[in-house]
Design goal:
Chain lengths: 115, 114
């Protein structure tokens, strides 16, 4: 069984730039969620994708957007980067249907630094 | 307001001692409940989950957790801690509202004395 993978591992960007983070879901999973984890805090839900559509969204501005592809992999795009966007970005995959949506398995994360 | 509270920021235990990490939640209906562990620079690993039924759930690495409805708690326990258990532990809830999001506590950092 292949786990959740994310790329890149680390990224450094300048304020105002755009960034794309990538995630491959665990085999057998069709749903992908993205979280932002600031230093010293718990992860915050950004959004979830199912059947290539956004399936739920947290309290993040529209400059955070995503995509899901037919193979269930996903991208997180962040436009107009701000210094506060510096964080660990975590991708999680799950199955669909009731509580299974919430049983989420996480990748190792992408550490984004905005300077 | 909906919330997840982990009251202990840091806990230090000696290797071989027992462990209990506290988690309280505030939601209208009993949510789905989870514990995750995060080693430095790593992602989150699911230790155990509670959906319904038996209130004592067993997880990986010898961990267990007990759901207590009357106390809105879901505390994590381990009878004998190993040095490799040193990590950050997060309690998370999944509200039964079709939002599909997990809401995490602020975490408890576990230090293990040799």
């Amino acid at each position: 069984e292949t786990g959740v993978t994310q790329s890149p591992t680390h990224l450094i960007k300048t304020r105002g730039q755009q960034v794309t983070l990538r995630c491959s879901s665990q085999s057998g999973h069709n749903t992908v969620s993205w979280y932002q984890q600031a230093l010293g805090q718990g992860p915050q839900f950004i959004f979830q994708y199912y059947r290539e559509e956004e399936n739920g969204r947290g309290n993040f501005p529209p400059r955070f957007s995503g995509l899901q592809f037919p193979n269930y992999s996903s991208e997180l795009n962040v436009n107009a980067l701000e210094l506060d966007d510096s964080a660990l970005y975590l991708c999680a995959s799950s199955s669909s249907g009731g509580p299974l949506n919430y049983e989420q398995y996480f990748g190792p994360g992408t550490r984004l630094t905005v300077t | 307001a909906q919330s997840v509270t982990q009251p202990d920021i840091h806990i230090t235990v000696s290797e071989g001692a027992s462990l209990e990490l506290r988690c309280n939640y505030s939601y209208g209906a009993t949510p789905y409940l989870f514990w995750y562990v995060q080693s430095p620079g790593q992602g989150l690993q699911l230790l155990l989950k509670y959906f319904s039924g038996d209130t004592l759930v067993q997880g990986i690495k010898g961990f267990e957790a007990e759901f207590k409805r009357s106390q809105s708690s879901f505390n994590l326990r381990k009878p004998s801690v190993h040095w490799s258990d040193a990590a950050e532990y997060f309690c998370a809830v999944g509200p039964r509202d079709s939002s599909y999001k997990l809401i995490f506590g602020s975490g408890t950092r576990l230090l293990v004395r040799p």
